[in-house]
Design brief:
alpha+beta; Arc Repressor Mutant, subunit A; two-stranded antiparallel ribbon; 5 helices; 15% strand; DNA-binding protein
Length: 98
Amino acid sequence: MKMPLRYNIINLLLKNLEGMTPKALHDILDPIYIGEKQCSIEAIDHHLMSMKGVGLVKIKDAVEDDNGNLDVTYVMTDYGATRAEKYIPEYLVMSVQV
């Protein structure tokens, strides 16, 4: 059974303190969730925006790419890390299943 996508996103953000873009997350997670709509770059960005809305992640950087789209880098907040360690610690010890 696969780990819930958001748990994998949280796990990756906790391990990559410099932050990650939705595309970088997608490149790692796509082989796990092959063909699942929840794992498109757009869907991952929506997951991250939702997590931002409740304070689990924040935007570290946003730059415009060559196509005029925003390339947003998200990082885990201290609040998000604390919540993850409290509520899903069993998933944090797992590595992302690639």
